[in-house]
Amino acid sequence: MSLAVASACAAFAPSYAQEVASTPGAAATTDQATTAQEATTPSSPAVQTVVVTGLRASLESSMNLKRNAQGFVDGIVAEDIGKFPDTNLAESLQRISGVSIDRTIGEGSKITVRGVGPDFNLVLLNGRQMPTSSLGDRPGRAYDFANIASEAISQLQVYKSARAETPTGGIGATVNVLTARPLSRPGQQASFGIKGVYDKSAENLPADVQRGDRVTPEFSGIYSNTSADGRFGIGLSASYQERNLGYNQAAVSNGWKGPFRGDENNWGTIPQPGTPGSENITNRPDPSDLYQVPQNLNYNMSGIQRQRTNGQLVFQFAPTKAITTTLDYTYSENKIQTRRNDVSAWFNFGPSSSSWTDGPIAGPLVYTEIINPATSDIAMGGADYATKTENKSLGFNAAWRVNSDVRLELDVHKSTAESLPDSPYGSANTLGTASFSRGTTSVDFSKDFPVLSIQGADFARAPQQVTGSVFENGYVKSEVKQVQTHGSWKMLEASELKFGLAHTDVSNRSAFSVQQRDTWGGATSPADYPASLFRAESLRQYFDNIDGSSNPNLFNTFYTFDFNQLRQRAAEASGLPDLYLPKTTYDTDQRTREKSKSLYLQFNTDWDTALPIHTSVGVRYEKTDVTSTALVPTATSISWVSQNELPVAFGAPAFTTLSGKYKHVLPSFDADIDLRSDMKARFSYGETIGRARYDQLTGGQVLDTLARVEGGTGRQGNPGLLPVKSKNIDLAYEWYYGKSSFISLGHFRKSLDNYAGQSQTVAQPFGLRTPIGGAYWNAALANGCASADTTCIRNYIFRNFNGQPGVVRGPDDPSGNATGTITGQGNDPIANFRITTYSNQKAARLRGLEFNVQHMFGNSGFGVSANYTYVNSGLKYDNSSIGEQFALVGLSDSANLVGIFENDKWNVRAAYNWRDKFLSSTFDGSGPNPNYVEPYGQLDLSIGYNINRNLSIQFEAINLTDEIKRIHGRTERNLLFVEQSGPRYMLAARYKY
């Protein structure tokens, strides 16, 4: 029998994806449903199919998809029309061995597969490449599954091995998301659901950031119908979901200064032996040890409202038995509104005391900065912004069965993803306030929760006032135009030749602007802000689930405010209302276009040997041209406005254009052997590519708006980057010992080349002059100021050189220190900037094991599914090394355990997902430092009851055990952030007919 016919999911185009047939050795079909999909055309081969109706049937169908597939394929099948097993597709995908997820706002968003990060996993919708956009991350290729509701999804297919007919881009995996097609389900069918959602995290928030009602609604419906003659079909699905939630974070949000060696002595280091303050160091790091000191500590509480709308309209027409056409339109909209209040303390690396863990990587147990008098700032900020992401896809497909041996297909689509502000206050913002009454400040890092202690805080003596502000506007749009043709020709009795070509045109635009007022020492007078604008809050209650939050030394009182009320007051008091709104133009505008052409040949055949063998050999050719155009601002000057803040001024922007190109020949080979009617062995070799992120490709040098005493930062892309190329080997043994039970063991190896290494180079763009190290600075040093005491230096310059070129003194702050601006002059040093860029310089090797077991306990209704994935690579982050280095992000072991019970009335599923510690980034807010996500496990539960054959009710609980998420740096004491959210409960009713 042809392998193409034997495969349950052998092609990605929409009509191919809906076909299925039985294969020798497969389990017999039953009224529980053993097939993944039904045929889409009347002329398709007759097969026995039934509708998937329950948890057990869904698991059985997923097992048969795996069993009958060509290559290494896993999947998840809907229990019924309009009823996917999980409310979030990423949460479903994590149940598959080798798939791990990244969580955002308490739910799955992006996937890592077999240790390969989100940007190198390709997502298709009905076989079509989908664009992606996001304002909350760097412009990349990682698809955010939070944009798709699950109600209209009939199946998820995860292709882990390479095949010539598979579109390129998925090194870890290619995920094909299949939606319902009316001609696949003849007759009239419908399902409607309503759900109430209670997210406990929305309660544990300050009043100024809480949003909306405690219980929010979800509505969904799917309807399909076909004509009596089976020639015409229409399908419509829609869903609307609201969710109110919150999360609370404690964070060293700007990263850790360093790392330093124990014998270093410069700005930010702890006092060396024999110097003042050295006696205050406990368990000092040894000279060869590495250590870091915190730059700030921030507690923030965020309240979020989300509204997600999804819809799809499908028309199918089969004018003859040989031709089927499909026209479909898919739409999704994801709106997110965010309010935040926070309190923070910034360290200026003055006199300090500290205690440390043992080396060679020493972590802080307690870090204290000695401040006397108590005149530093206790910073309290707020935010109120909103974003909207829209996804649109219009596609047409025509499948023609020329004769019994030849099929041809044309598929065309245009799809867009667009993210933009949805608030008059922009896509992100911060309004800072402060009380200048902070004395000696300490942080205890010995527990999961970092405990901030402040001496001298006195809000009566130093009332809160507005300080600096930042208003951002962002815009990201990605568009895919794609034309694909596919064909197959059955040859002889058990062979098939597949062929196809495609043209894909991908455009990506990323534009941003920043309106920043760097008056962090005080924008106006405290008298401008009546006390009624601020509300006292207790901090501890918002972190009660994190170890260490009960420490009595915690600085527990802070103040929140209504963002818009205070913004309006600051605009009135300053007389500069435009500075408290986002710009209407963009400072940067980066555009990248990729045009790719591809063609493939793939030959499938069956071998009638003692042990039946099914093989597939193929080759794919890809050619891509890249053009990048960037509008970047021209920097004109640097000014010193506070102790460690030197904003960069910009003039008129200008466009630059760069280009690149590459081509690849990608071979593939698959074989599976029927060891017995219930046993298979598989082997696969293939080569795949994964394209660089858009922010890595985009040309144009962009400087960050705020420099520091030690210099500034910036970034520049490289459109000449080659894609990562992976050579993949897969081996597996599978034993299907029951109708719904199996065991499989797999081994995989990946050899990856051309990773884009992120590096920093020191440059002096635009010849900008900095007052740091200039004539005024040196005069202050010559008159007794220490180089680390920027307060002393600024006071000396303002009191001795006010009115001289570049020096403009303002009023003294409440502590008696001078304020004002010092601008770099022509004889001052040229400022250094650390520019982050990319080049093809890295290679990686990884290998792993996957173990799966699924067992149904006879007719008892009980079943269990479990899997474990082990991933290993020698390319890990070296915590003892200083500077930029390359390591694989996302690499981690993972496991799942799912238990079910089902009878004619009840269905119960408990699912536990665990992911081990993994490296999520090689840069933090201060530079090249690791970010490790600590091990995380989550328990989800669903209980359903069928009132009758049409009506059912369902209870679901997500994160039932209320887990926290924590990320650290080189040691567990180098906290980056710890997050507390909460469980989510849902009660639903569903009616179908």
UniProtKB/TrEMBL annotation:
Chloroplast is among the record's keywords: no
Signal peptide from the UniProt entry: 1-17
Subcellular location field: Cell outer membrane
Gene3D superfamilies registered for this protein in UniProt: TonB-dependent receptor, beta-barrel domain, TonB-dependent receptor, plug domain
Top-rank taxon: Bacteria
Main location: membrane
Keyword terms of this UniProt record: Cell outer membrane, Membrane, Receptor, Signal, TonB box
TonB-dependent receptor-like beta-barrel domain: residues covered: 489-960
Every TonB-dependent receptor plug domain range: 67-173
UniProt xrefs under NCBIfam families: TonB-Xanth-Caul
Family: Belongs to the TonB-dependent receptor family.
PANTHER family: PLUG DOMAIN-CONTAINING PROTEIN (PTHR40980), TONB-DEPENDENT RECEPTOR-LIKE BETA-BARREL DOMAIN-CONTAINING PROTEIN (PTHR40980:SF3)
Name of the featured protein: TonB-dependent receptor
Organism of provenance: Massilia consociata
